[in-house]
Amino acid sequence: MKKTEKILIAGHKGMVGSAVGRALKARGYTNLINIDRNEADLRNQQQVFDFMEANRPDVVIIAAAKVGGIMANNTYRGEFLYDNLMIEANLIEASRRVGVKKLLFLGSSCIYPKFAEQPIREESLLSGTLEFTNEPYAIAKITGIKLCESYYRQYGCNYFSAMPTNLYGPGDNFDLEKSHVLPALMRKFHEGKTTGSDHVIVWGTGTVLRDFMYVEDLASAVVFLLENVSAADIYEKGISHINIGTGSDVTISALAELVKDIIGFQGKIIYDATKPDGTPRKLMDASRLHELGWESSVSLEEGIRRTYKWFLENSENIKR
Ligand SMILES: NC(=O)c1ccc[n+]([C@@H]2O[C@H](COP(=O)([O-])OP(=O)(O)OC[C@H]3O[C@@H](n4cnc5c(N)ncnc54)[C@H](OP(=O)(O)O)[C@@H]3O)[C@@H](O)[C@H]2O)c1
Fold first, then answer.
1. Which DSSP letter does residue 28 get?
2. Is 155 annotated as catalytic?
3. Phi/psi zone of residue 156: left (φ > 0), alpha (ψ -120 to 50 degrees), beta?
4. CATH number of the domain residue 105 falls in
5. Is the separation of the CB atoms in 106 and 164 below 8 Å?
6. Residue 98 host element (H or E)
7. Each residue of 44-95: pLDDT tens digit?
8. Ligand 1 atom closest to Cα of 62?
9. How many domains does the chain have?
10. Domain membership flag for residue 314
11. 1 lies in a domain?
C-alpha cells in the first residue's frame, strides 16, 4: 500500500477509528479522509453514495458501527440490527461502485456461537446458536462479513473482514448504561474511590472469561492487515474473515481485581448475579494472524494503566 493512497476511515471519531488514524499517520500515511456524521449519516444510502462519488478513496476501513455492552445490545435490539446493516451495506456497495481497491470491515467476537469450541477458530462462524443478548448485532456483523466475501466472489473486490476481541483504551465509552465491561469497571472503581464508598457492584457472577486487547494494538493489527493481507489470502484458505486477539483470557473477577488495584479503590467487590453474564467464555484463536507475523505487545496491566491515565486527563471532556 502506497503512503499516498487515499484512505477513508469510517467512524474516525470512535475509539477504534481514532486509534487506526493515529497508527496510519505514525506509519507515514499522508492522505487520510473522514466522513463526519453531519456530512453523511452512514445509514443514509444517498448521502453515502454522494460522499463516495465526490471523494473516491483508494482504501476504506469500516470502523463505524452502533456499539455497546450487553445492556445496550439487548435493549436497543432493532437499532443495533438496522443501523449496523445499513452502515456496512451502504459503505461496501458505495466502495464497489467507485472502485475502492481495498476494504477492511471490522466486526467483533460476538459473531460466534454462544457455545463455540474454545479458543474460537474462524471456522466456527455459523456453526451454532448465537448469544441472545447480542444476536441482532451479531447478525448484522455476520452480514457484513458475507457482503465482503460475496463481493470478492462475484465481483473480485479486494474486501475482507477482521474480528477483533474485546477492546479498550483511550476514547472508550464510559457511560454505565452503554459501556463494555472494562470501561464500566474503571468508572465504577474511580467513582467508588472518589466518593469513599465501601463497595462497588459488578454485574454478573465474575466467573466468565474474556480476552481484552488495548486499542493501540488493534490499530497496529489493522495496519498490518492492510499492508500484508489481501481478500484472496483469506477466502482461498476457506475462511471468511480473520480473528484479532491476544491469545489469552482472564475471568471478569480477575479483571475487576486488576482494575481495582490500579485505580486504588479500597472497598469490597459485590457481584450482582441477577445481571446477565453473556457467553461463558470467549477466547479467540488468533493463531492465523500470529502465523502471518503479527502479535500484540501491550499487556493487560499496562493497557489499563494507560487507559486510566487517559481517563483522568480527559475526565472533564468525557461525554459518554
Ligand atoms: N469496542 C470494542 O470493544 C470492540 C471490540 C471488537 C470490535 N469492535 C468493532 O470496532 C468498530 C468500532 O468500535 P468502537 O469501539 O470504536 O465504537 P465507537 O467508539 O462507538 O465508534 C463508532 C463510530 O461510528 C460512528 N457512527 C455510528 N453510527 C453512525 C452513523 N449512523 N453515521 C455516521 N457515523 C456513525 C460514530 O460516530 P459519532 O462519533 O458521530 O457517534 C463513531 O465515530 C465496530 O465495528 C466494533 O464492532 C469494537
1. T
2. no
3. left
4. 3.40.50.720
5. yes
6. helix 77-98
7. 999 999 999 999 999 999 999 999 877 889 999 999 999 999 999 999 999 9
8. 45
9. 1
10. no
11. no
